Amino acid sequence: MKQDVYAVIFISTFSDTTEGYLEMVHQMEDLAKKQPGYLGIESARDKKGITISYWESLEAIKAWKQQSEHILAQKKGIKDWYSWYKVQICKVEREYEFLKS
Amino acid sequence: MKQDVYAVIFISTFSDTTEGYLEMVHQMEDLAKKQPGYLGIESARDKKGITISYWESLEAIKAWKQQSEHILAQKKGIKDWYSWYKVQICKVEREYEFLKS
Question: In CATH, what class is A6-91?
């Protein structure tokens, strides 16, 4: 049976302070990889940042949101780094891929 | 009743040729905005590009995929610009937002 995949889309704009930001991003990526139900992550950043993490279930997403170090990172993000962000929890209905041969 | 929202996640890596790429991106964004069922677009680009477009229905997504100028752009993308891409069709289950006051 095909596995369910959920995507958490995180889109953000930045405030003037970016000190410590990239270190925290890398820490959180390393931490996310250790979470149960983690499937992968994609990100790109210019004026906005978009990060999409993939998970096996809504429960796995909820557990990651409530992970204690991640909570500290979220608070720091709100206090220092982000002027705006939006989070969207999505179910991946289907996907396809192209690879240049 | 709450409106359905579908997200098309498009993640890509680039080949060496980027001539004409940004012009085409802007043309396609302008064109997408005129499509029935279009709700919005977000994008960010560094080593990878991530573009997420939002739609009212799977039918609207299908119609956009088959729009004639968009088909030409897809072919040009495969021929010239992308070394890899992945498309994921998702249903947005819920979302929340933060805006710094």
Answer: alpha beta
> Domain segments of chain B: what residues?
6-91
Which chain A residues contact residue B95 at CB under 8 A?
A: 86-89
Report which of B51, B57, B56, B59 is spatially closest to residue B29, judged by C-alpha positions: B51
Residue of A4, A5, A9 best to disrupt the B interface, most CBs of B under 10 A: A9
101 residues of chain B, pLDDT tens digit each: 678 999 999 999 999 888 999 999 999 999 999 999 999 999 999 999 999 999 999 999 999 999 999 999 999 999 999 999 999 999 999 999 999 88
CA distance A34 to chain B (A): 24
End-to-end CA gap in chain B? 30
ipTM greater than 0.90, yes or no?
A: yes
**Concatenated DSSP letters of A36-85:** TTEEEEEEEESSEEEEEEEES-HHHHHHHHT-HHHHHHHHHIIIIIEEEE
Sign of the CA dihedral running B25, A53, A55, B38: negative
3-class secondary structure for chain B? CCCCCEEEEEEEEECCCCCCHHHHHHHHHHHHHCCCCEEEEEEEECCEEEEEEEECCHHHHHHHHCCHHHHHHHHHHHHHHEEEEEEEEEEEEEEEEEECC
**pTM (two decimals):** 0.94
